[in-house]
Amino acid sequence: MVVGFSVEIEEKQNIPIVHINGEIDIYTCPELRKKLCELIDNGSRKLILDLENIQYIDSTGLGTIAHTARAIESENGQIFVISSKNQIKKIFKVSGLEKKNITLCDTETSALKELS
Amino acid sequence: MVVGFSVEIEEKQNIPIVHINGEIDIYTCPELRKKLCELIDNGSRKLILDLENIQYIDSTGLGTIAHTARAIESENGQIFVISSKNQIKKIFKVSGLEKKNITLCDTETSALKELS
Amino acid sequence: MSNSSLHMTLDIPCASEFVGVARLAISGVATRMNFNIEEIEDIKISVSEACTNVIQHAYGNITNQDSQRIYIQSTIYDDYLEIIVKDNGEGFDTDMLGTDEQKEKSHEKFGLGLGLTFIKSLMDDTSFSSQKGQGTTIKMIKKAPVLDL
Amino acid sequence: MSNSSLHMTLDIPCASEFVGVARLAISGVATRMNFNIEEIEDIKISVSEACTNVIQHAYGNITNQDSQRIYIQSTIYDDYLEIIVKDNGEGFDTDMLGTDEQKEKSHEKFGLGLGLTFIKSLMDDTSFSSQKGQGTTIKMIKKAPVLDL
Ligand SMILES: Nc1ncnc2c1ncn2[C@@H]1O[C@H](COP(=O)(O)OP(=O)(O)O)[C@@H](O)[C@H]1O
Ligand SMILES: Nc1ncnc2c1ncn2[C@@H]1O[C@H](COP(=O)(O)OP(=O)(O)O)[C@@H](O)[C@H]1O
């Protein structure tokens, strides 16, 4: 089954949590990019991206996350990515993105703890 | 996601309940056909087919069910098919199979009730 | 309007394990057209039925396995999806469809004569052409969902 | 051994909405080979990366949209799955891969130069060929799962 793509934003402890559903690829990335830009334009410098309910992500998705992280880097901005899936951890490792201001967390709770 | 195909048999009130998982098509039908033949060869004349967890069925699957039903028809054999999904009800309707010794039920409970 | 920019072709072996591949590919196309889950199911079943017919009937006496293929084409139009399933098999006399002789043959082969019935009832338009020795082509159309704006 | 009987070809438009179709079709093939879920994910990502590269890089200055296609071929062998992703685009000088100039170009286009890195790390073997004016072909191999018997 192909699932519809959606990006929903919730706020906890003043930090936007971006819940993403579906497949993140070259087709759906523009929508994600737009939402992330809006958050940054509105002043967010810490973001949580919840990837628990995505079915797929590739380099296009990681590219979008990396560009967002780079845009807020000089202002101490940080992105926490929630995913417990091995496949996603694996491609983050291959990409080498984790060294920067991007942190992988297993759960929302641990992401919020790191941020507070 | 493509799910593996499996056929598992459970017995309740002396009636075999055939739980089918995955997609029933020309590729998986031979396995289903084999299991149903075994049950009939072992003397079963009433069968419950649980289609609640199938992702797909087409005329090949209905053909297999119809042939099984026909094989036990002369001995008052009956097949109860469990499915609450509209799509499956629809193709049973189109096929016209329900008129014979094949009955569609929404739940296992109602199938067992009809049989007792 | 030219729509070859929204045209897909899938060429698979005439083998039962590949029918699922055709189903997956076509469901990907249908999803892009905003068909709902039930309509996507209708389309998947119809494509499967057409492929199943090729496997069961098209290449009966042709022994060169390598040339036994199923061609699935789909084109997205503004208001409908067109799907063509084609083979280069033996072909058959379409006049015999619906006759007692055909029904008998179907039963012999473990079929119910349901394949074409399903396609006709699940799709909005179906046309069938076959030529002895040339192969068979089935064209089916599903109308695009009307979006509430 | 001839394997054309286990050969599939998918021909899709060079458009982002069709990458998911390629992914679905190839996952169908991979499932038939008993790859596990993680291996199927590796294969899906690799095919997507190759298609994404075609969309982003292959047809830059070619204006005839209708001829901008992506060809995906897969062949099942006894102990591996071979996948080829091909375009008829501009091609490029493969010597520049890994150079600073290429990295800069990648970044301009919103890329990270990750596509080929991903493919190389997720597949067992990868080979790349490209000719200016002729197009680009990437061939990848994933070893079949060894079944415990
Ligand atoms: N691709 C094909 N090549 C040759 N004959 C075909 C093809 N598709 C359908 N037929 C013929 O049309 C008949 C009706 O098909 P169908 O309604 O699907 O029933 P069934 O497959 O159960 O026999 C088949 O029995 C066969 O004789
Ligand atoms: N199909 C193709 N056609 C033309 N150029 C390509 C193709 N695939 C890859 N390239 C070239 O190879 C480079 C590296 O690709 P890749 O590792 O996927 O990184 P990225 O796509 O992020 O730039 C691209 O920037 C591009 O110049």
Biggest sheet architecture of chain C: 5 strands, antiparallel
Strand content of chain C: 25-35%
Whole-number count of domains of chain A: 1
CATH class of chain A: Alpha Beta
Question: Could you provide a short overview of the structure?
Answer:
The complex is a heterotetramer, with 2 copies of chain A (116 residues) and 2 copies of chain C (149 residues). Chain A is an alpha/beta fold. Chain A has a single domain, classed as STAS domain (Transcription Regulator spoIIAA).
Write the layout of secondary structure elements.
The complex is a heterotetramer, with two copies of chain A (116 residues) and two copies of chain C (149 residues).
Chain A: E1 6-12, E2 15-24, H1 29-41, E3 46-50, E4 54-57, H2 59-73, E5 78-82, H3 86-95, E6 102-105, H4 108-115
Parallel strand pairs in A: 2-3, 2-4, 3-5, 5-6
Antiparallel strand pairs in A: 1-2
Helix pairs in contact in A: 1-2
Chain C: E1 7-13, H1 19-32, H2 37-58, E2 69-76, E3 80-86, H3 100-108, H4 115-122, E4 125-131, E5 135-143
Antiparallel strand pairs in C: 1-2, 2-3, 3-5, 4-5
Bound molecules: adenosine-5'-diphosphate (2 copies).
The site of one adenosine-5'-diphosphate has 20 residues of chain D, from helix 2, helix 3 and helix 4.
